[in-house]
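User: Last request for today: this protein with magnesium ion, please.
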Amino acid sequence: MAVDPLIELRDVNKHYGQLHVLRNIDLTVGRGEVVVIIGPSGSGKSTLCRTINRLETIESGTITLDGRPLPAEGRELARLRAEVGMVFQSFNLFAHKTVLANVSLAQVKVRKRGKDEAEKRSRELLDRVGLADQADKYPAQLSGGQQQRVAIARALAMSPKALLFDEPTSALDPEMINEVLEVMQQLAAEGMTMVVVTHEMGFARSAANRVVFMADGRIVEDRTPEEFFTAPESERARDFLSKIL
Ligand code: ADP
Ligand code: MG
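Assistant: Here's the final one, the structure of the complex with magnesium ion:
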């Protein structure tokens, strides 16, 4: 498949003190692609996600978003960062704001939309994630699965070019995992560009265009789910899969 690159990392390196946490990372995410990142705990998956959004600085390499280099800081960075939404394991909703306000807030502050327009869009998005009737509640009144769907609606509200998910279902009770994965499947089917760190191999098989396997800060494999799951090339990946499948 000829990809139209939306996110490109070239030879990206990052340390935390002595720890070389990202090593020579080359990764291209095409427009409309879903890339699932898997790998052992501590392999650098979360750091990679945060790096794509420049929530972390890097020491060398380049990151481009839609053909433009991501600057290290400043107004331009804030603008570009708003184009890549992020959904975390812990939903990070504002506890003292309603669901509607959670989804609307950044639209007004960052995207400079009027309050009415932002709320209208928020209601549409809440409907899309199956929460039209929860708009006036507070996060603590919702289940974990519902809170995570609010977080997804909030990320979508910024009209991002891509979404990053860092273990979005890892903090959820088992019966709530599917309602979140279904929303993500739907987004994937609609053509949203997504980078998803997850241990949900069913999602990887059914939604991913590519599976990226990381170990010790490196990308060890970057292949189709079909290839990866039927014949992983590396010992590390075989070992990892034998433990989780
Ligand atoms: P993963 O998400 O794959 O579990 P992380 O990206 O969270 O891995 O972490 C990769 C490595 O970097 C781990 O060894 C972790 O302990 C370390 N690390 C993560 N964040 C920090 C930080 N802020 N300061 C120092 N070390 C960190
Ligand atoms: Mg992590």
